[in-house]
């Protein structure tokens, strides 16, 4: 028996109404028009509570822009099968899979979706946190872990590429792990962060929450700093949506995970987002473990330095000081007329003892963990200069403010190391008689000038590793400080470092 159209329509209507899959129909204004019983049960609302309301009510707010774009594409005739997430009236989220279609009726376009819940047990285990024992104390251990996590996240999601970038103190992504990214991506990502590229959703990322951006391609392409990165990705594949989530611990971001999805995928599923968040959390855990291990090592080193300082003060320093007392006693006890050779030797003993005491005071000062902070940069440099003068023919003049400088403890230490390197170079290589160190507080910067009257040199012909210039430049770069060198054969040498203060950094942010 052949069925007529009426019989087929009646049968189809029965199938739709009683289907175990949820079936909904929405109009071109995103409002529910109809839903079968299965859909009402999955969504958590009776039909009378759905009719006339926007279907966005059943999706997490983070994917609303994606769903609007996807529905507009659906009404335009773009159909397919997709995963996603719905949220019920109790706030509980469910992973679903749906297919869609569109049709016209009465001159209007409608969209329909057929969907069902997806059991999480269908999916592989989420990315797991690394074992602490796998991590060493070198940054390369964290980079290796980031690489493994990026590869795992790529294999367990539908992302085309995943990057876990690790940042330095200036929030520049200089290292990390990447999977599926095209050649040149790492350089483009580093250049974007070095150019202070800040995506529109950076506030969400920095706040510690994953950000799902449906039109990430277009939004990034509008920003000059990110255009090379977008071009790099475009050359490898077609993409549109991106997920960004932070890698952080202790309230401080140490990097970020970026994942890029195919252009024909309306939005990542909740499972995709969960996998990526798991990977970012695992990277955060690894970063924290590395930090704790390095902190423990540093604490142990500081404790050992403090112990050495105490022992040197109680033993060697006291012995050298006793030597000076015995020298003075010998002068007083000896006949008034001493042979010239004896007097000369006693003078040498006094000079050596005075120099040794100055050296020991400077060494003990450097060994004490809190000495530089307590004394301040200017006083610390004075003690250093005294020690250098005691062991050489170099006269060193130090000038600077008595008030504390607006430099962080790490900046103060780096500045001290730069000055120490420069002054030791003068004493060893410059054949100078006089050196001057001037520390000027210029409110938003601290300017340090080290000059000498020595032989100078040709800065274009410095041998590799000679004079410690590389070390000084690197330390200055770490402080975001300028490093200026002025010298020439027979002209002496002047080094000038200008360091932004904490006040200056706040002003220029």
Multimeric state: single chain
**What is the radius of gyration computed over CA atoms, rounded to a whole number of angstroms?**
35 Å
* Main sheet makeup: 5 strands, antiparallel
Low-pLDDT stretches are 120-137
Average pLDDT, rounded to a whole number, is 79
| Residue fraction in strands | 15-25%
Separation, N- and C-terminal Cα atoms: 80 Å
Count of DSSP helices? 16
- Assign an overall shape: elongated
Structural class by sheet pairing and helices: alpha+beta
How many strands appear in the DSSP assignment? 15
Arrangement of strands in the largest sheet: 2-1-5-4-3
Q: Percent of residues in helical segments?
A: 40-55%
Which key phrases capture this entry?
509 residues; alpha+beta; 5-stranded antiparallel β-sheet; 16 helices; elongated
């Amino acid at each position: 028996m052949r069925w007529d159209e009426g019989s087929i329509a009646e049968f189809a209507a029965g199938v739709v109404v009683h289907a175990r899959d949820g079936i909904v129909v929405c109009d071109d204004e995103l409002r529910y028009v109809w839903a079968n019983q299965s859909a009402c049960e999955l969504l958590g609302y009776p039909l009378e509570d759905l009719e006339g309301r926007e279907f966005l009510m059943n999706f997490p707010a983070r994917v609303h822009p994606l769903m609007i774009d996807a529905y507009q594409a659906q009404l335009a005739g773009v159909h397919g099968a997709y995963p996603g997430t719905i949220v019920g009236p109790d706030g509980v989220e469910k992973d679903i899979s749906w297919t869609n279609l569109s049709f016209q009726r009465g001159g209007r376009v409608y969209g329909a979706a057929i969907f069902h819940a997806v059991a999480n047990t269908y999916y592989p285990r989420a990315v797991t946190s690394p074992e602490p024992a796998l991590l060493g104390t070198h940054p390369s251990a964290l980079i290796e872990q980031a690489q493994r996590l990026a590869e795992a996240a790529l294999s367990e999601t539908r992302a085309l590429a995943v990057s876990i970038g690790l940042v330095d103190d200036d929030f520049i992504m200089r290292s990390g792990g990447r999977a599926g990214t095209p050649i040149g991506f790492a350089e483009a990502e580093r250049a974007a962060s070095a150019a202070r590229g800040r995506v529109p959703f950076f506030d969400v990322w920095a706040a510690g929450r994953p950000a799902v951006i449906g039109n990430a391609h277009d939004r990034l392409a509008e920003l000059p700093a990110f255009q090379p990165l977008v071009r790099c990705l475009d050359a490898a594949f077609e993409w549109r949506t991106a997920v960004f989530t932070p890698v952080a611990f202790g309230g401080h971001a140490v990097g970020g995970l970026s994942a890029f999805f195919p252009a024909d995928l309306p939005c990542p599923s909740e499972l995709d987002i969960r996998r990526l968040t798991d990977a970012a959390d695992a990277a955060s855990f690894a970063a924290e473990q590395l930090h704790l291990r390095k902190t423990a090592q540093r604490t142990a080193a500081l404790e050992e330095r403090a112990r050495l300082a105490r022992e040197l003060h109680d033993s060697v320093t006291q012995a050298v000081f006793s030597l000076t007392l015995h020298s003075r006693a010998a002068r007083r006890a000896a006949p008034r007329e001493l042979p010239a050779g004896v007097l000369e030797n006693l003078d040498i003993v006094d000079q050596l003892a005075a120099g040794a005491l100055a050296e020991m005071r400077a060494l003990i000062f450097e060994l004490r963990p809190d000495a530089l902070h307590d004394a301040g940069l200017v006083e610390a440099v004075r003690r250093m200069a005294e020690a250098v003068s005691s062991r050489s023919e170099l006269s060193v003049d130090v000038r600077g403010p008595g008030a504390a400088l607006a430099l962080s403890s790490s900046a103060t230490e780096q500045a001290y190391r730069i000055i120490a390197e420069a002054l030791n170079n003068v004493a060893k290589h410059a054949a100078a008689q006089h050196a001057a160190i001037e520390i000027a507080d210029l409110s938003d910067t601290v300017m340090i000038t080290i000059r000498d009257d020595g032989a100078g040199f040709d800065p274009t012909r410095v041998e590799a590793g000679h004079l410690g210039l590389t070390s000084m430049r690197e330390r200055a770069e770490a402080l975001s400080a300028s490093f200026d060198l002025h010298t020439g054969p027979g002209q002496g040498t002047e080094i000038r470092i200008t360091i932004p203060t904490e006040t200056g950094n706040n002003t220029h942010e």
